[in-house]
Amino acid sequence: MTTRIDWITRAETSADLPVVRDIVLAAFDTPLEADLVDALRTDSSWIEGLSIVAAGADGKVVAHALLTRCHIGDVPALCLAPVSVLPEYQRTGAGSAAIRAALEAAKGMGERFVTVLGHPEYYPRFGFGRASAHGIGLTIDVPDEAMMALALDAAHPLPAGTVRYAAPFGI
After folding, report:
1. If you ran DSSP here, which 8-state letter would residue 53 be given?
2. For the residues 148-152, what does the mean pLDDT come to?
3. What does the alpha-carbon distance between residue 84 and residue 62 come to, in Å, rounded to a whole number?
């Protein structure tokens, strides 16, 4: 039996930076994703308020989700990456809480589109669907089912085009 945890989500603060780096380092096999987050913080793609953390009632930050500027063709969009959860808190809903909070924050800022390159079994629960079904692609080869996109506002359907990521992604 698992205990339900009501995660507290909020925008990252400067005090969270070392903790977020530790979470990203713990969640991935190499430091590449943690270095990516650091590089994105100094890039023009960074949007204040879209780096979201999830914490328990005790205030311990255990998860992080990041949205940064990308483009689908010439249309501004957001890229969800990386999403990180301390290994001992994976499968507790902390990552999902951070993602939902990030998407809500983006929608509240008037953002319309989000892309993600990730696990095709995980991201559809947030509304993501296969990007290629909307004419969205990449300049690199990835499994078709792993490249997904989401319209945050049903009144604005996803545009077609090639995703252009921020320079730190190296794509």
Report:
1. E
2. 98
3. 8
